[in-house]
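Pilot study result, target chain (219 residues):
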Amino acid sequence: MQGLTKKQQAILDYMKGFVAQHSYWPSIRDIQGKFHFASTNAVFGHLQALERKGVLQRIPGAARAYKIAPEATVDTPETVIRYEGPNEEAENLESLPLMGSIAAGFPDYTESTGAVASMQAAIPAGSRRRPPQSFALRVRGDSMIDADIHDGDTVVIEPGVAKHGDIVAALIDGETTLKRLIKQGNKTYLKAENQNYPELYPVTELVIQGIAKSVLKQI
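Predicted structure:
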């Protein structure tokens, strides 16, 4: 591996320290805030430099998702760091059902009435096709802004077994919300990515409806 600049080493150390503390990887917005970068494009530029120097490796089958190279660290799991910028090239488009909206704030009761529309979503070059049960939801609220998910964005939800740290569409005590899933010991709860919102602990039930895999930004 090539030598790192002081800034590159600091970013790498931050990423490793973050996952050691939280058991999930920092978002692009986390890195941007930590180092006071003017834009998320600046973050991605540093990630590209770390990739060129052999510190980061692409995760096969995932567009712009990385893991730390084995030579750079020991016993560190793969990251879900992902960046899909405005110039991301797409090979194909696929149709997804738009199932209405989801609260990214305090949970609310939304009765499911099936798909309200369909939309075309790009498949970035090198990515796998989404599972057929995937669907899209329009985001309402600002509780996930530190994960770079904003009011008016659209999240693509895929089926799967949610792990600690995943951002999920969840039904908590009969109300729906978009939050990060946290598992600590025998406790499972939902965490906002905005310090103005509390953690949500289920009283009777917590049902994971799907995992947020990508975000389509509002222009």
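One observation from the pilot: The chain is about 15% helix and 30% strand. A full batch analysis is planned for the follow-on phase.
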